[in-house]
Design a protein that fits this description.
The chain is an alpha+beta fold and about 90 residues long. It contains three helices and four strands; from the N terminus they run αβαββαβ. It has a single domain, classed as Alpha-Beta Plaits (2-Layer Sandwich). Helix content is about 15%, strand content about 20%. A two-stranded antiparallel ribbon has the order 1-4. A two-stranded antiparallel sheet has the order 2-3. A hairpin with a 2-residue loop joins strand 2 and strand 3. It binds iron/sulfur cluster (SF4) (2 copies). The site of one iron/sulfur cluster (SF4) has 14 residues, from helix 3.
Length: about 90
């Protein structure tokens, strides 16, 4: 169980990795790089802060992605497709 008193010192937003939510997924986001313009909106809205730009590509740390689909919904170029976990 998480000690709530310790959470007060953790900055909200990026790198807020408390729970490994990767196992929760029933859908997995896939980024179609040919459609991505690196606008950064998905990174901004991702609730777990698990999306990041690396060498001109948006990557996802699947250990913390919970498959919520918010990134796909906010992407202005429909570059992110949610696929069912197998
Ligand atoms: S599906 Fe949700 S948790 Fe996973 S990368 Fe997209 S916004 Fe973040
Ligand atoms: S919101 Fe879409 S276009 Fe913008 S960086 Fe994310 S995947 Fe790329």
């Amino acid at each position: 169980m998480t000690n709530l008193e310790n959470l007060s010192n953790i900055p909200i937003g990026k790198e807020l990795y408390i729970v490994e939510t990767g196992d929760w997924k029933v859908l997995t986001p896939f980024i179609q790089l040919n459609k991505c313009n690196l606008c950064g909106i998905c990174e901004l809205y991702c609730p777990t802060g698990c999306m990041f730009e690396n060498e001109k590509i948006v990557e996802i740390n699947m250990q913390y992605c919970k498959g919520c689909g918010i990134c796909a919904n906010v992407c202005p170029t429909s570059a992110i497709e949610m696929r069912a976990e197998k």
